[in-house]
Amino acid sequence: MTTLKVISAGAVKRGVARVAAAFEQDAGVKVVIEFVPVPEVRRRIGGGEAADVVVATPAALDEMAAQNKINASSRGFLGRSRVGIVIHADAPLPVVTDVESFKKLLLDASHVVRNEASSGIYVEKLLEKLGLVEVLRPKLIITKTGSAIMQAVADHPLGAVGLAQISELMVMIDKGCRVKLAAPLPDEIQNITRYEAAATPGAPAAAAALAQRLASAEAKTIFAETGIS
Q1: pTM, rounded to two decimals
Q2: What CATH number labels 81-189?
Q3: Of 113 and 116, more confident
């Protein structure tokens, strides 16, 4: 039986896993998936690690295409993810409708949590833009992954605020993590991240078929159910 190795961004985990499971049944192949932050996808593929399908942001795939690490003709669009404000499951819902109310929430928080992935890099730049870096530094927690953001918020119930991909938040809620979505980032500072899939040169023919399935209309319905639209 053919085995396909997929290295995928973690923000699209639920959708990719569901589509891949259906593809396994239909195509009679085995799909093994590793979910890691996009910078890690870049590092591993750029460093020569073998994979049959890669799921990442367009910028990352552009970089891989320039290095002949992916088959550009196999690229397909999966969907978009948005950043949300994460609080403990037992915390009262704050009212966050604009930039000023968002800033107040962070200033009042006991801890502010971001990660080192694409969304975390955006949050870092956003805090700089809003002039909050220095004042928040003593209570800033930086995690490696999105799931670790949720765990950190769950571990600091008295006022911790996390900033994470909404799709990753939904995964952790499904796993029983004691967190919830307070609100998406206000529209004027929202970050929308696109995700695409592509097969790699020399991969089995089934790899391109999987990339195509991940970008299909059927898959988009699945991704929408997981917070990717």
Answers
A1: 0.82
A2: 3.40.190.10
A3: 113
